[in-house]
Amino acid sequence: MTEQQLISKIRELRQFKPRQDWVVLVKKQIFEHDERNRVPFVKGTRFLLGRFLLGEKFVFQHKPVFAFITTFLVLIGVFGFAQNSLPGGTLFSLKKLAEQSQTIFISEKEQPKHNLELVNKRLDDLTKIAQTNVVKNLAPAINEFQASVSKAAESLAKTDTKKNPQVVKAIALEVKKLAEKTEKIKSLGVEIGENQEWDNALAQIVEREIEDLEEKTLTEEQQEALIKVRSDYEAGNYSQAIEKILLLTNN
Amino acid sequence: MSYFKMKKTQEIFSQIYDQYVDKIYRFIFLKVNSQEMAEDLCSETFTRGWQRFKENSQEIENPQAFLYQIARNLVIDHYREKGKVQFVSTDCVSIKDPEINLEQKAIKSSDLETIRTALKGLKAEYQDVIIWHYIDDLSISEVAKVMGKAEGTVRVQLHRALKALRSQINQA
């Protein structure tokens, strides 16, 4: 047998071919396995993010960065949504967390005002709950209100109004709002209870302001106003007394 | 990988599959004992090929060489894992050729089996060079690339392989 004959015989082995049905089946199986493992949601989001916004290659070369950004945006969304939540609601703890984290960035001087603003917010929450008649949320809302009042009272007690006369005005404005809202909530039939710490804190501020005013030279009109302040103080109407002090010092 | 990119990659690999499935199947079939085993190993070759191709298709410069390499390794693993020795099988795959009558068919089938049996009696590297160069029509340089050897070495191996094959046929 010559070499050419041998090669020719070898080439006859080309007749060995796979079964056509098997060829089709294997191809189908290889790609079907992948199709089954694909997640439609991922496909959709990658399509939107990758193709339309930034370019696929860019997005998927920076997967960790985009994962972080997505998580960050989701958190912002959740926190934003939580701002509308009310005491007793599932997202209210997030709302509180956001408020507490804001406190870190507020100066000590501004703390009493900030705490009073929070008391006002809790009263707003309570009013919404009372108006929508969500009875199961009333108790948590009152508790939250009382807790915020205690915290505000604590920071008021620490405030040196002589050093920060401007704070008194801010406090007085917030106290005035609080008094109005308290009346409104009481008119809805909700009993929010008394807070001795709060009364004591307000009494201290009124006392200090009265002493301060007594040392100053006052006009006849101001002296009359001061008498009314003393009268409110003695009657235990500290909110009204502070309101009058605000008017007196503004004149 | 995005849906569209995956679809495109699938299309490319689908073309590669159509182009090389016959060759890869034949390459394996000539080295193993049965049609079933050849089908299993060929299927595994393309499955592994697809897994690697979709992960990084740009790294694969020569799909043919890439698939032959996988197939070659799978055949080696097959014999190694099973502790099997390559032996000559008498099972035969029917070859469709309507142009010849039964007598001629029997003679031709017998010739094919003789060559096939003789080829299987060679060492793996000789089998590879003969299949690639004479059956699958790979050039010497292509065979050299698949084997990772110099062209001169491949030429020498091819010459020795033919000599060994002739010897095997004469012994039969």
Please tell me about this protein's structure:
The complex is a heterodimer of chains A (251) and B (172). Chain A has 251 residues and is an all-alpha fold. Chain A is built from 12 helices and no strands. Chain A has helices spanning 3-11, 20-37, 40-54, 56-61, 63-82, 92-103, 111-132, 138-158, 165-187, 196-215, 220-235, 238-250. Chain A starts with a helix and ends with a helix. Chain B has 2 domains: 1-86, Rna Polymerase Sigma Factor, Chain: A (Orthogonal Bundle); 103-172, Winged helix-like DNA-binding domain superfamily/Winged helix DNA-binding domain (Arc Repressor Mutant, subunit A). Chain B starts with a helix and ends with a helix. Chain B has 7 helices and no strands. Chains A and B meet through α1, α2 and α3 of A and α1, α2, α4, α5 and α7 of B.
Descriptors:
heterodimer; A: about 250 residues; mainly alpha; 2 domains; about 0% strand; B: about 170 residues; Rna Polymerase Sigma Factor, Chain: A; Arc Repressor Mutant, subunit A; 7 helices
Radius of gyration of chain A: 36 Å
| Percent range of helical residues of chain A | over 70%
The major β-sheet of chain B equals:
none
Low-confidence stretches of chain A: none
- Work out the count of structural domains of chain B: 2
CATH C-level of the largest domain in chain B: Mainly Alpha
| N-to-C order of helices and strands of chain A | HHHHHHHHHHHH
- The helix-and-strand class of chain A reads mainly alpha
Distance between the termini of chain B: 54 Å
Give the second-level CATH assignment, the architecture of the largest domain in chain B.
Answer: Orthogonal Bundle
Question: What is the terminal separation of chain A in angstroms?
Answer: 127 Å
Mind sketching the topology for me?
The complex is a heterodimer of chains A (251) and B (172).
Chain A: H1 3-11, H2 20-37, H3 40-54, H4 56-61, H5 63-82, H6 92-103, H7 111-132, H8 138-158, H9 165-187, H10 196-215, H11 220-235, H12 238-250
Helix pairs in contact in A: 5-6, 7-8, 7-9, 8-10, 9-12, 10-11, 10-12, 11-12
Chain B: H1 3-29, H2 35-55, H3 63-82, H4 102-120, H5 124-135, H6 140-147, H7 151-171
Helix pairs in contact in B: 1-2, 1-3, 2-3, 3-6, 4-7, 5-7, 6-7
